[in-house]
Structure formats: structure tokens, C-alpha cells
Amino acid sequence: MVKKYSKAGIIVIASGIFIAVILFSAPSKSGSPVYIKQQQTEDVLSESAAAADAIAENNEFKKAVLPPIYLPTPEPLKAIYMTSWVAGTPSLRKDLVRFIEESEANAIVIDVKDYTGRVAFDTDNEVIIQSGAIEERIPDIQALIRELNDKGIYTIARISVFQDPYFVKIRPDLAVKTLNGGVWKDRKGITWIDVSAKEYWDYIVHLSRATHAVGFDELNFDYIRFPSDGNMKDISYDYYDEAKISKAEALEQFFAYLAREIKPLGIPLSADLFGMTASNYDDLGIGQVLERAIPYFDFVSPMVYPSHYPPSFIGLANPASHPYEVIYYSMSRAVERMVAASTTPSKLRPWIQDFDLGATYDADMIRKQKQAVYDAGLSSWMAWDPSNKYTKEAYR
Fold first, then answer.
1. Is the pTM of this model over 0.70?
2. Is 345 helix (H, G, I), strand (E, B) or coil?
3. DSSP-derived secondary structure for 303-344
4. Which domains does the chain have, with CATH numbers?
5. Would you call 59 exposed, middle or buried from its count of C-beta atoms within 10 A (0-12, 13-18, 19+)?
6. Within its chain, how far is the Cα of 132 from the centroid?
7. Over the stretch 227-264, which tens digit does the pLDDT of each residue have?
8. C-alpha angle with apex 290: 284 to 296, nearest 5 degrees?
9. N or C: which end of the chain has fewer CB within 10 A?
10. Of all helices (H) and strands (E), which one includes residue 368?
């Protein structure tokens, strides 16, 4: 069996116990993901045994891919969500890709940094490398994105921001704290980064640039907020100072920084907000206000999952059982606010739910959510199912 691996102008051909090293002219690692990770060029040339060890350790032969093509944003956009683990497993992702091809969906949202804080792909970015956050769940990420783009599928990278247990572990000084100075945890035991820790803002910018470089068509930012679920009486901040600035103002500072640093790349940016930001004018205690996000993002996505609304919302005992009413009311209010802010409502692109919580969400329940979006004057939506098992008949 013959295998080829390359790095910095070298091909190593391994067949049985024979190893040949051949010089050639090749693109850099940033131009092609085909490389030997843990050997320098001179080591390979001088010691074939070391090269063989590097080949064995690499596990996967990474195929060279064509450069990114960056699709324009479809209008309307209709997306589903995919975890990084599914995206990195060809046997699992192929069914979702086929589903998109056979349905009305034309886009996919893929985790590149989820609630764990781990980065799901390899990168040349030294800041990300030095953080140790890389957990290469999607080894062929460039090839996957190109495959999706070639099929006309728009790709959106989801980046969970201030909910980041991994970064808290390596930099607890940047974390949300307890009153006695310990690291604060929410009710799920998850730790958070202080919204005003500007050193972490730079880290997110580096991750965003690295994500753009591998070919994603859009960057989507989630958990861009202060924490909300946990012992809020035992919470303190080393960087955010509530005596000087409101939570909404602190978060808007981050939005402005993100837009200033990333928009020059020419990639669309989108933001996920709590569903009730569509109808509430306060910051919900988490810093999110619709009007403060609008200027900095190309698209804003209220997560109007009916199951997440409190009892008695617009007079409904169980909002989860009334998906049309909840979403129509919420997105109609959001449209009115966009118009009042002299902004096109088409920047609104809500998340809808395809999971059971508070009620059974069959195809009819999902269709009602989509219809509510359309009746509110909008045309785009994104569907969320954490298990990635979508109710396919709802998207014919």
C-alpha cells in the first residue's frame, strides 16, 4: 500500500518499509491541509525513520482541496444546524447533506466552537494553536465546505462566545467570578468569560479570521451575552463595572469591536439573540437589546423557540403548544422595531425549533412556525435540533 504525505515542498512516499523523500514545489500549509504535522522539513530530509514516525502519528491522510469560493447569501435562507461531531463523521453527515439537497433547505450551520469552548478544526493561527483549544473534530473541514458549496449549500460557522469552559480553565483570571473570587458556574456547571475582558475579544477575532480562512460563507455568533441561569446573587466581575456602564452598553462595545475587526474580510456576520429580544425593550438582564445589535451584524436571529417562553406569555398557558401565535407575535414586533430603526426587516432571520419540549413538535408544528415567519413579513429562518434528527417531511 502506498501513501503520500506532503509538507513545505516535500513528498514522503511510504510503501512497506521503503520510504522515499522527493523535493517538489508545493503550496504552504495555509494553501493546502496536506502536511505532516509534527516534523520540520530538515528532519524529514535527514532522518527517514523520523519521517515514518510522523506519518504513523498523523493517523489521517488529509486530501488537498480547492481554494474557498464563498457563496453569496441566499435569499430566502433556510438552514438547518449540524454539530461539529456529525460534521466530522462522513457516515453521519451524508444523510443531512442529502436531506438538504432533497428539501427546501439551502444552508447549514456548523459548530466550530460550541459550549465546550473547543475549536473543531485545525488552523495555522498561532493564537488559537497556543491556546490549546483545538480538538480536531472536523479533519477535512476545507473539503467538506467545498463539497457543500459545490452543491449550492451555503455554509455558516457557529461560534459560541462568552460561554467557554475551556478558556476559563486556561485563563481563570478572565472568568465571571463569585463574590469570594472563585470561578462562577451556571446551573449546568458551565463557566463563562467576563463580557468586558477585552483580551478575550482578540481571541474571538483570531478564531473568526481562521474560520473565514477555511472557507465558511458566514460567521454566526451565539452566547453573546451575560450569564443568566444560576445563582445570580453570588456573581461578580473583574472587568465589567456596572457602576460605569450598563450591560447593554458593555455588550454593544463588543459588537462594535467585532464588526470593526472582522467586516473588512468581506464575510457576512450574524448574531443569535434571546427570543424575547424581539418583543422586550429592556436587556433581559443579559445585555441583549435588538436595536443595539442591528448596526453591527448583517443578520440578527432571535431564538423564538416557543418552548422557551414563560407561561402566560401573550396570555398563553403553555406557549410551546402555540408555535404560530408565539412566533407571529414576536417576529411582527421585531419587524416593527426594525422599520422604526430605519433598517430593512430582511436582516431578521429567526431560529425555529425542531425538537420536543413542552409539546410534541411534529411536521405540522414546524410548518406553523414557518408560516408565522412568513405572515410576519419575513422569508428566512434557521431550524434547530440539537440531535440533528430533523422532521424531514416538514421541509419538503
1. yes
2. helix
3. E--GGGSPTTGGG-S-GGG-HHHHHHHHHHHHHHHHHHTT--
4. 2-58 (no CATH), 78-395 (3.20.20.80)
5. exposed
6. 19
7. 999 999 999 999 999 999 999 999 999 999 999 999 99
8. 130
9. N
10. helix 363-375
